[in-house]
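[step 3/7] inverse_fold.run input=structure_tokens len=243
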């Protein structure tokens, strides 16, 4: 069975085409370039199923819908559920959970099947707790790396936005801003790991994905599994189970 999956986020729209053996093709474009998605898909084979996570708003949803209309395949627009693919949601209103977070949780459970802190580090960073029983316990959303850096620049008179590098002991302002943001992101992840240990979940696995994952991973003192695109992996599992 062939599957076309879309992960439409705030910064990028990623998609992949898979068959029973796995991914055959993956690509992306900036969300601001959504009008080009039809051209980007023009050589894509005919899928049997289409599954979509969209957290980028109605304009992006409409553009994707128009681009895939040629396939005459009814798409599945993913949203948070009370239970799906072995994962149960502890959210007060499961439908309010972002479809990208829900797909990421499903991917982590499918790939590792254990207590995990599921992290997607993009425009924002989500840090979600998944129990040993596959229950989503809850999670936090924090500004991503660039949002933190931009906030400091726009909200202060002296901290101008400029390139910086991570340093343990920064000796200039640019490095101090970059290092502070990376440490803040790593700290949010480690704090969630501590909370899970406090409630008897042991030492969870950190499942890390997103554009700045490679910057965060070396700053964590716990075991990390990097996944190239956790949301697409979860969407693939949803499409398989629902086929």
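[step 3/7] decode complete -> sequence:
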């Amino acid at each position: 069975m062939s599957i076309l999956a879309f992960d439409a986020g705030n910064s990028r729209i990623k998609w992949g085409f898979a068959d029973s053996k796995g991914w055959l093709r993956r690509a992306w474009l900036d969300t601001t370039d959504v009008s080009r998605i039809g051209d980007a898909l023009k050589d894509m084979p005919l899928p049997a199923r289409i599954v979509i996570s969209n957290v980028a708003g109605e304009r992006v949803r409409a553009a994707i819908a128009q681009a895939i209309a040629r396939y005459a395949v009814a798409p599945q627009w993913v949203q948070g559920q009370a239970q799906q693919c072995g994962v149960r949601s502890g959210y007060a209103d499961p439908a309010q959970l972002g479809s990208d977070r829900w797909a990421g949780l499903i991917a982590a459970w499918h790939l590792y099947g254990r207590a995990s802190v599921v992290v997607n580090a993009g425009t924002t960073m989500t840090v979600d707790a998944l129990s040993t029983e596959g229950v989503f316990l809850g999670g936090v959303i924090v500004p991503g790396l660039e949002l933190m850096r931009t906030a400091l620049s726009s909200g202060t008179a002296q901290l101008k936005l400029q390139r910086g590098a991570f340093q343990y002991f920064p000796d200039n302002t640019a490095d101090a801003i970059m290092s502070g943001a990376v440490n803040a992101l790593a700290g949010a992840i480690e704090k969630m790991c501590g909370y899970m240990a406090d409630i008897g979940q042991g030492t969870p696995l950190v499942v890390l994905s997103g554009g700045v994952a490679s910057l965060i991973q070396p700053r964590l003192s716990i075991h990390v599994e990097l996944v190239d695109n956790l949301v697409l992996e979860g969407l693939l599992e949803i499409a398989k189970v629902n086929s």
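[step 4/7] annotate
Residues 88 and 135 are 5 Å apart (CA to CA).
DSSP finds seven helices and twelve strands in the chain.
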